[in-house]
Amino acid sequence: MVLLLQKIDKLYSKLENYHHHSHNHQSQALSSSPEAFQTLVSNALNKLLSSAKSAESKVPSFPWIQQCFELIPIINNGFAKLAVAIDYPMTKWEADSVEEYLQYTLKLLELCNSITRSLSHLGKERMSLSHGLSLVESSSPSLAVERLRQIQVQPKSLSKDFRFQGNEEHGKERFSITKRSVFHQALVVMEGMVFWVYGILMTGLVGDSKPYLEMRKSGGRLVSSLISGLDLSVGEVIVENKGMLKEVIEINDSVAALVSAIGIGQKSKAEADELQRRLEMFERLVEDLGKEVDCVFNNVLAGRNQLLNGFQHQKQ
Questions:
Q1: Cβ(182)–Cβ(30) under 8 Å?
Q2: b/e per residue 45-66 (b: at least 16 CB within 10 A)
């Protein structure tokens, strides 16, 4: 009997040590994971800032806005790792966490669709110029001049549905940090960063600084503290150049040079070749960014479906 009691005491002691260790590990994860997530975001932003400073041109370029867009999957993956680190998988999410995430992903899907529409417009403008260029090569310069029009962008304001609306106070608790509050604060940072990136992209794609300025104005304090240095640098460039991309400016300059050469009767082969080269490069850039956007859209949609399917199984 005494031996049995001793064994029971040892078993309880092991269980208490396990629960104590598990609790300490969980507390450490809850306190360290938000800092790790923000460090990941900061490092990605610092890399982007370094790229912007090292660029030869101070005008935003297509490769640079694509690099901005690549922040989105980096941040989304960081958020997923945070959820694992704090042991808060989708199956454990509370109703308000599920609703917040579904709202965020729905907005992200809509933003991807908006970017895709702008890329489609630029693709049509490029095809129109390519057609005009083919008329030059087929010895129809007068008809070509009518078709060789500079790329026209589509300035637009953002829908109110696209504005960042993160409530940074929600989920804060006075005496303890919970999985739910850590989840929420990370979601606020992720959503704010995604909207900031979207503002940069749309400003470049539509050739108007308004999308960036509108998105920037709606950002929260957490996001502002993370992007302060880069935001100041980017903001100055965007406002100064009215959001126009370097490649669009160069194509429009080439169009003007070609039309001018045709107009005064000069040989225009050099100007035509230069425009052709720029249009081919522009086509590749548009296609590459389009593939990146499609990839993010598909991954986000898959995540939403996984979450929704999980809840349907729980109800059954």
A1: yes
A2: beebbeebeeeeeebbbbebbb
